[in-house]
Amino acid sequence: VPAGSRKFYMGNESSVEVLGIGTYKLEMRRGHTLYLHDVLYAPDIRKNLVSVLSMMSLCFSFCFENNDVCIYLGTIFYGFGYLSDGFLVLDVDDSSFKKNANGSVSNIASF
Question: How much is the pTM?
Answer without folding.
Answer: 0.67
